[in-house]
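Write out this protein's structure.
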Amino acid sequence: MSLFKKVPSVTVAELAEKLAENPVIVDVREKFEYVNGHISGSQNIPLTKLRTFHYTSPVYIICHSGARSKIATQYLHKRGYNVINVKGGLMKWNALISREK
């Protein structure tokens, strides 16, 4: 699977504009990364656990830098899911992030 193949994508700014619509956001980082900070309301399904992915609505896929989310988006898109990669990941996210208690 090529990392350079085009996938449906948005910037973090475009995702931030959609937050009022309560989009489904799936964070594909490992749990230990997710608990250290994530977009409020996002769900954690690590890249290695994507076989548990079952959504019918459009889903935004995010990770730390955008590499894992692009792989996940390619994988899920090929399987017929309506998924959108978030380019730049949390490294580019400028909004507040949640911390697990």
